[in-house]
Design goal:
The longest helix has 14 residues, at about 125-140. The mean pLDDT is about 90. It is built from seven helices and twelve strands. Helix 2 links the parallel strand 1 (about 40-45) and strand 2. It has helices at about 10-20, 50-65, 85-90, 110-115, 125-140, 190-195, 230-235, and strands at about 40-45, 65-75, 95-100, 120-125, 145-150, 170-175, 180, 210-215, 220, 235-240, 245, 250. By secondary structure, it is an alpha/beta fold. The radius of gyration is 20 Å and the shape is globular.
Length: about 250
Amino acid sequence: FAVLREPAGRGGSVELHQVAKAGVALTVRPRNHFPLVESDSYLFLAGGIGVTPIVAMVRSAVEQGKNVSVVYGGRSRASMAFVDELQQLAPEQVTIVPQDEIAGLLDLRGALEGIDAGTAVYCCGPSAMISATESVCADLGIDSRLHIERFTAGDDFEVSFDPANNTAFDVELTRTGVTLHVPADKRLIEVAREVLPDLSYDCEKGFCGACETRVISGTPDHLDSILSKEERESGACMMICVSRTKDERLVLDL
């Protein structure tokens, strides 16, 4: 578990660095939108603090005797977390790319072109790195094997909220027993929080998964950047911070 202190962020990382002193007990509710799928071999691509989930996956894969390859880039070796642990876990399979020692960015195409058929690809890092990885995987026809996790939305995933393009709808909250009207100029989560002020949410941009809600009926209009194509098509859940509905009525498990 690692949190990079980001003074220019929204305040969460700074607060945690101030509060999480030795001996302090924290209550957490983990959500996993980045599970390690079953595979005989893995390619792990990590950028900066995005190595945090990757190192846990590498540890698990190595313990299971799987074939692993790791490419990990960062601004400087001194700022890159878990370097020693990764090199101990898979000394011959880890490539460390500090920008202050090796000019340029990660050679994503070089790493991806040579993988065996069936290799699962995992990528976590800055938005630009993830976008570049998605582009290369699509070009190579292996995008179905790519698994990503974002810790920032990035400019490419800033969800535009324009009331002129929205349609009003009703939402029924089955456990709460109320039906609410969501006007075109309000987000679904805004309206739901009027009766459920403790509703879980975080990024409000559709990439963290904190507001994931089960859909009982209705067709979600998915505007997040976290659900897979299959998850979107199933319509079983939605991120209510950004997504809306294609129907006049939506029924949620809230």
